[in-house]
Specification:
Two copies of one chain form a homodimer.
Chain A: H1 6-26, H2 34-44, H3 51-62, H4 71-88, E1 98-99, E2 102-103, H5 105-108, H6 111-131, H7 137-151, H8 156-166, H9 173-198, H10 204-231, H11 234-237, H12 243-246, H13 252-256, H14 258-275, H15 284-295
GO biological process, one term (chains A, B): phospholipid biosynthetic process
Pfam families (chains A, B): polyprenyl_synt
Cofactor (chains A, B): Mg(2+)
Chain lengths: 298, 298
């Protein structure tokens, strides 16, 4: 990330090292099916922006936790995200060949392996929350609840289903926002909730403010994704540019226009930053992350 | 099931009604993506032998619980089983068109919907263990742990991966047993563990005996499956008979011969029944279930 976000960079550098180590430690190097563990590692350890884990770490710090207290939920959230990408990329879904500049999991391995690797990343996320690190059982259970609600049939997976059904049809702006809230927003907000839970504090106002922040950046993130799909190249994105047009998807730019989409993203960034305005310098990393999300070029 | 198993029938009749009600209650009638919730219900509510839930109920009763205490883990285990069937049936995996006498989920809906319905059944199982019913957080967490270990990269999914890789190759008997232990045995034993946990007792010997019983019937179940694939018809099975030969799979009959396979299943049934011999009449349903497993004709 750019050096115009110094507080974010400081958190991000530490958080990314910790996340990679945690994923490396908790994704099997070997297993009863080595091809399957290889595919899990391929899908989860091949980079990416790591925004969701950053949100876990950022929320945990803001709630007074150490970064170490956030390692397990950060890795769990990233595993759920990685599982969803592997399945969404499959030929029967979005049929994408490239992800993060590399062949997608089913291209690097095969479809059956990719389906199973997504499945085992999914299981592993909940296993981590139930077994790893040092949290009271009640905290673990609340983390599992929040992650399930965000990922399941009224969350991320429902968003993907809505997205698939919308291919080739013009959506209303309200339907588009609702779809993205499910597909992306809920897991982003859950990341903040899990970071908050890792700190084991009782600050309901902070939790509420984190959710307000999360809902705003979740939508801003998607608007920026839609903008980049038009304005950026494939090499820059690490995935095929212009894929929204190829899939005849409604996007914020197609419904609103490019400049109004940028304005909407900018307003959402401001809403997010305002939600954390009362927390002083501790909130700087998350506030800068909101800015980064709408100014990123990949 | 046949009336030659009266104790099993008494448990089974009650358990099946409770299971259907619990699944019906906890699988969404509507959701943010109605097609997805329809597919979840289609996959989980279209019958089946319900052996895993029966094991949950049977173990819970043996440990002194009411059937009601076992409803949630019984439904969770069945959801994980249903998710695995939906994904295993996909064209990229076993490519099966028929399941329980009905079109498989991807045939009744489409591949994308089936992938997502498997995913959301998977998530929903953990959500149930984390949220539904009335259990202390530590019990919920242990249930999640056991179910994750049984389903994940060193359990059911690894078994499916091994199975896929073995198509067209002759396996050793040891490799075949190891594969089935992962693919089927671990979830069967986990079902008994979850039933035991639902009772919230501290009887480590009982838990150990249930695991011995589970490991034996898990293997016996698979041997009987292999035998039926040769000796039964498609109509009787509700899925294509002869599919092992079609996929060039090693099976117990192909490695051992038909009659020695029957003998091995019979020995395993006896091992299972012996493991519970010290528990008197309370163990009768599970002992009869072992007998049913090797004498069933579908």
């Amino acid at each position: 990330m750019s050096s115009s976000f110094p507080a974010l960079d400081r958190l991000g550098d530490d958080a990314r090292v910790r996340l990679e180590q945690t994923l490396d430690q908790h994704l099997p190097l070997d297993s009863a099916a080595p091809r399957l563990s290889d595919a899990m590692r391929y899908a989860a350890l091949s980079g990416g922006k790591r925004i969701r884990p950053l949100l876990v770490y950022g929320a945990a710090r803001l709630a007074g936790a150490t970064l170490g207290q956030a390692d397990i939920p950060a890795a769990a959230v990233e595993m759920v995200h990685a599982y969803s990408l592997v399945h969404d990329d499959l030929p029967a879904m979005d049929d994408d060949d490239l992800r993060r500049g590399q062949p997608t999991c089913h291209r690097a391995f095969d479809e059956a392996t990719a389906i199973l690797a997504g499945d085992t990343l999914h299981t592993r996320a909940f296993e981590l929350l139930a077994s790893a690190g040092d949290y009271p059982p009640a905290t673990r259970i609340t983390m599992v609840q929040r992650l399930c609600e965000a990922a399941g049939v009224n969350g991320m997976a429902a968003g993907q289903m809505q997205d698939m059904l919308a291919h080739g049809r013009v959506q209303t702006l309200a339907a588009l926002e609702a779809m993205h809230y499910l597909k992306t927003g809920r897991l982003i907000t859950a990341s903040l909730q899990l970071g908050y839970l890792a700190a084991q504090v009782d600050q309901p106002t902070l939790l509420q403010d984190l959710c307000t922040y999360g809902d705003a950046i979740g939508l801003a993130f998607q608007i920026q994704d839609d903008i980049l799909d038009i304005t950026a190249g494939t090499e820059q994105l690490g995935k095929p540019a212009g894929s929204d047009e190829k899939h005849q998807k409604s996007t914020f730019p197609s419904l609103l226009g490019l400049e109004p989409s940028r304005q909407r993203a900018s307003q959402l960034c401001e809403t997010a930053q305002q939600a954390l305005a009362g927390y002083g310098d501790s909130a700087l990393p998350l506030q800068q992350l909101a800015q980064y999300i709408i100014s990123r070029n990949h």
